[in-house]
Each structure stands twice: as C-alpha cells, then as structure tokens.
Design brief:
By secondary structure, the protein is an alpha/beta fold. The protein has one domain: Metallo-beta-lactamase, Chain A, CATH 3.60.15. It is 35% helix and 22% strand. A 7-stranded mixed sheet has the order 1-2-3-4-5-6-7, with helices on one face. It has a 5-stranded mixed sheet with strand order 8-9-10-11-12, with no helix packed on it. The protein has a two-stranded antiparallel sheet with strand order 13-14. A hairpin with a 5-residue loop joins strand 13 and strand 14. Helix 5 packs antiparallel against helix 6 and helix 9 crosses helix 10. The protein is globular, with a radius of gyration of 20 Å. The relative contact order is 0.12.
C-alpha cells in the first residue's frame, strides 16, 4: 500500500487554542458551529504589526478564541493588527471580518472580484435561484427550500474592503507574500505564498485529510472543477516547504498532496460516470449513491453541488451528456 502525505506534526493544539507553527507565525483553531469543527486562522508578526489571515465564523466561541489567541501571542487586538486578509467569501472565513475590523481598526483585504460578489451574495440574499437549482437537479422541493433558507441568510461585511490582485505582494513578517488566485472551491479564492520563508497559506485549496468542496452553485462561474484542476496543476513545483491550510493538519509535501488530490478527482469522475452508464440519473440521485451515511441537510446540499460539478466536468470532457427536462438527468456518452 502506498503511504500518503503525512501531517507535519506542528500546530497540534485543540480547537479554540493557539500555537506557534514556526517563529513569528501562530495558528488559532477557531471553533465553527458545524461538523468541520474548526477553521484555522494565522497570525504573522511583522515590524508594522500583525497580519491576520482569515477571520473565522462570527459567534461568541470564536470571538473568545481570538481574544485568548492574541493574548497568548503577546499582542493586543485593538492596537497591534496591521491588516486582515480574507481568503474567500465563505462564512467560516469572512464571517468575523467586520467584528475584527471594528475591534482593530485594521484594513481588510480580499481578491478584487470577490468584494462585489460577497456584497451581493450576503448583502441581500435571494434564496429563489438556489432553490431552483437544487430542485432542477433532483432535490425534493421542501428539502431544497429548507436548505436554501438556512444557507443564504445575510452576513454583515466590513464597511470597507480593499482589493488584492493576483501577483501582488502583501507585507508579511519581515518580507512579503505573493497573492495567488486559487479558484474552484470559491471562484475568487486567494492563497498567499511567502517565497522568502517558503510557506504557503493555502486557504481551502489544498488541505490534508479532507478535500475541498468544489461545487456548482447558482452564482458559480462555469466549470468549477476544470478551473480547480488547472489551478491545482499550476502549483506543481511551487517553492513551498510548509503548507498552512484553512482546515486539517499542517503538512510539508505540497507536490505529493497535489498528486493525491488530482487522483481523487479522477477516481470520483470515473465513479460518477459508472453510476450513469446504464440508467440516466439526476445529480441528486448520483449524490445519494456516492455520499452515503447520515448527513446533515447542509452536508447533503454540499454533496449535491459537488456531484453536479463533477457531472458538469464529464459533460465538458464529452464523457457524459445532460438531458434537459423538469429534472435534469445525466447519462454516459
């Protein structure tokens, strides 16, 4: 049996706790109120203050973890933060950004195209397109309405968010980090590559132990899995000895994990094509076959979106075709 990429054995603290990863870089595992358990945020010490990477989900346990983590690092949230970089629009990453900005008075940064997108999505959420997508691809309407209502609630964003562009440098510690566009999990997700220290702040693009949800949602640009796989392949040879992800363990073998993720998606594409080889099925039916076990409604919805992205990719490759109707079905080509 081939042994996979291993955790680095760093930042092994519990949820709600902070730990030094390497000198000048701390990780806090902020709790989240859903099965993932935690999201990892990073605090990088610099001459002009601390750079915070991601904000976490905004609820009392996470705010308390921020306070305790900053005290453990020896800085004051209200005085010593230089900037806050948010990697993407999901609520476990951007959720507490407004609170952090109000506490610290520090500027918040996101990818340029992510800013208007996040404001549209969270400023005046409309669940109808979400319901329509889920129902069109086979989810029962009552279930779809419940899921969309829970997942498209409003989210207060910072008053001001400043733009970042791919290739731009962000001050980081005593050097800087390069902004890398990493689409797939979110269309305008960013990673930060500290080339001087050979550290990659990988957000939810490359993680160990879990794979990022690459889903097709109402607001998603076409072919998210194709864009994810292209971005993943572009990381081969990236000069990074340490990968700090948004979820899961810290690890070192970036190239090995890129290969594992590419192989995983190839296997999933084959498995989904096998499901539609003899009998056409809706994306919801395929998702029920491939994502087994007891799932929450939110997890079931993510499973459908991920299945839909893979079926969409099979159509792009010419390995499947979609049959339009009241419910869309897919069959192998």
């Amino acid at each position: 049996m081939v042994e996979g990429v291993r955790a680095a054995g760093l930042a092994t603290q519990g949820v709600g706790e902070a730990a030094e990863v390497v000198e000048g870089v701390r990780q806090i595992k902020l709790p989240v109120p859903f099965p993932l358990g935690f999201v990892s945020v990073y605090l990088v010490e610099g001459d002009d203050g601390w750079t915070l990477i991601d904000a976490g989900y905004d609820y009392p346990p996470a705010r308390e973890a921020w306070r305790e983590g900053s005290r453990a690092a020896g800085y004051d949230l209200s005085r010593d933060v230089a900037r806050i970089v948010v990697t993407h629009f999901h609520p476990d990453h951007v959720g507490a950004a407004r609170w952090l900005q109000e506490v610290s008075a520090a500027p918040v940064f996101m990818m340029e195209r992510e800013i208007p997108f996040a404001r549209r999505l969270w400023g005046s959420p409309d669940a109808k397109p979400f319901v329509a997508l889920l129902v069109r691809h086979g989810m029962p309407r009552e279930m779809a309405e419940t899921a969309a209502g829970a997942m498209r609630s409003g989210l207060p964003l910072p008053e001001e968010i400043l733009p970042l562009r791919a290739g731009e440098k962000v001050p980081m510690g005593d050097g800087s980090a390069r902004v890398i566009h990493a689409p797939g999990h979110a269309d305008h997700q960013l990673m930060l590559h500290d080339e001087g220290r050979r550290i990659l702040y990988a957000a939810d693009h490359v993680m160990l132990g879990i794979t990022p949800n690459v889903g097709l949602w109402p607001e998603t640009e076409p072919y998210p899995l194709a864009r994810y796989l292209e971005a993943l392949a572009s990381m081969r040879g990236l000069d990074a000895d340490l990968v700090l992800p948004g979820h899961g363990p810290v690890f070192r073998d970036l190239g090995g994990r890129v290969s594992e993720l590419a192989a995983h998606h190839a296997e999933r594409l084959d498995a989904m094509r096998a499901e539609i080889k003899t009998v056409p099925k809706s994306a919801y039916e395929v998702s029920r076959r491939l994502f087994r076990g007891t799932l929450t409604l939110q997890q079931r919805t993510f499973a459908l979106a991920e299945t839909l992205a893979h079926l969409d990719h099979l159509v792009l490759e010419g390995r499947a075709q979609a049959q339009e109707g009241e419910t869309v079905t897919y069959e192998a080509a």
